[in-house]
Amino acid sequence: MPLRDSYQKHKLAYFIGAACLVLMIGSWYYFSTKSSAPKYTTVTVRKGDITAAVQATGTINALTTVPVGSYVSGTVQYIFADFNTRVKSGQVLAQLDPAIYEAQVTQARGNLQNAQANLVTLAANVQVDVANLAKAQANVKYEQATAKRSQDLVTAGVISVDSNDLTQSTLGQSQADVQSAQAQLDQAKATLAQARSQVVSTQGGLKGAETSLKYTTIISPIDGTVVARNIDVGQSVAAALQAPNVFTVAQDLTRMQVYAATDESDTGNIKAGAGVTFQVDAFPTEQFHGRVSTVRLNPTTVQNVVTYNTVIDFSNPDEKLLPGETAYVTIPTGHASNVVQIPNPALTFKPAALRAQLPQIYKQYNISREASTTHLGGWQVVWKMGPDKNLIPVAVQCGITDYNNTQLLQGDLHEGDVLVIAQQTAGATTTTGTRPPGFTGGGPPGR
To answer: Which of these, 372, 427, 432, 437, has the minimum number of CB atoms within 10 Å of its CB?
Structure first.
């Protein structure tokens, strides 16, 4: 077949093949060019309500919990209260073996009786010594009168000088007897005072022995419920260095508290009297309510993380919640109604493709360094999608956040604007940035 005839016969096939080749080249160029352009994930700005809250985990505790200890050592003889027993103030909880302490009381009573008897004897001796002193003093007076008469008789020449000297000697001996009786009386009084001290000491010993005997009976100091029992019958209780805790009594389980460990960044927003909601694992579908009582000033530091105990009071009339349960607490710290909401991912996004041009772009749109880097005064930068799909930086001042959206206080941002929250790459969607500074309420976004 001639070549011309062959070409005419396959002309249509050649034309279709060329068209397909051009279409394939054009498609490849279009899609390769389109795939090289960055793609972004966007959200539309809306208005709504924002409630800022602090979320924390805490432990439920009784309002007052009293550990009941034993002040004496001994063997547990009887136990009259167990776990969950309701007790009254003064009710007997347990009894230690009192035999040793009863013997000590008996011995102390005997010592006191001996000391009192000795005191009576010494008091009688003092009375005798007082009488002897009085007798000696009377004898001295008599001898003084005799000596005076003897002296007068000597002067008159009635008696001899020797007789007068004998009378004077007898007077001196009587005076010495007075001094001896006085010394003996003083010694008897000192012995009597010592005996009185001994009586007081033995009275103290008896009182101490009776007190130790009384402490063998362990009683409840308050009305409440026994939440812990740490002893069994036959167990030895040693109170040598400190009083061991044998029972724990919770005063009132109808009024309880949650000790919530709150981060140091959250404490500035928590106010006393603020309403609180919390949940527990025992009742996962129920929500309980309380009120902030105080933020305790004693910090706890674990691996450089500083937390403070926020005390939350709540009523537990049915005693459904038990001491020691874990509570998941939400403490509202602010509320804003019908405000422009900025999605939190938009606050952390920075376009990677424009990283080198950021200083010029910020200057072009009058974005200050405080807003773009330091975030002073709550100012930050978000990226809005322009009419021609270009990115426009907008400086915004942020308010409170609920960890999903943040309140707009100031800035050229309105309801219906489109914000970029992430840049899509092959196989992944990425965002650039960190937790936005200036959040009110603390905690990472999306906690």
So the answer is: 427
* The two three-digit tokens of residue 289, written as one number: 């309510």
pLDDT at 439: 36
Across 8-35, b (16+ Cβ under 10 Å) vs e yields eeeeeeeeeeeeeeeeeeeeeeeeeeee
Q: Considering only CA atoms, which of 350, 345, 338, 331 is closest in space to residue 407?
A: 338
Q: In what order do the strands lie in the sheet containing 236-237?
A: 217-219, 92-96, 74-79, 236-237
Per-residue DSSP letter, 371: I
Distances (CA, A) of 55 to 139, 305, 350: 100, 16, 28
Q: Please, are residues 270 and 55 in contact by the beta-carbon 8 Å criterion?
A: no
pLDDT digits (tens, 9 = 90+) for 377-413: 889 999 999 888 889 999 999 999 988 999 999 999 9
Instruction: Identify the helix (H) or strand (E) that includes residue 125.
Output: helix 99-156
Q: How far apart are CA 438 and CA 395, in angstroms?
A: 14
CB atoms within 10 A of CB 81: 20
Whats the size of the chain, residue-wise? 447
Give first-to-last CA distance, the chain, whole Å.
81
Instruction: Assess contact for 83 and 228: CB atoms under 8 A.
Output: yes
What pLDDT, in 10s, does the model give residues 167-188? 888 888 888 888 988 999 899 8
What is 76-110 written as a DSSP string?
Answer: EEEE---TT-EE-TT-EEEEE--HHHHHHHHHHHH
Question: 3-state DSSP call for residue 28?
Answer: helix
What torsion, rounded to 10 degrees, do the Cα atoms 315, 317, 323, 326 define?
A: -60
Which tokens sit at 1?
Answer: 């077949």
pLDDT tens-place string over residues 89-104: 999 999 999 999 999 9
Q: What are the φ and ψ backbone dihedral angles of 199, each rounded to 5 degrees?
A: -65, -45
Strands of 97-223, DSSP E: 217-219
Pairwise CA distance, residues 260 & 327, whole Å:
8
CA trace torsion 434, 440, 441, 445 (10° rounding): -30
pLDDT at residue 387, as a whole number: 86
Residues of the chain with pLDDT under 70: 1-22, 24-37, 425-447
Two tokens, residue 234: 């036959």
In sequence order, the β-bridge partners of residue 87 are 224
Q: Which tokens is 299 given?
A: 């910090």
Query: Directed axis angle between helix 161-215 and helix 99-156, to 10°?
Result: 170
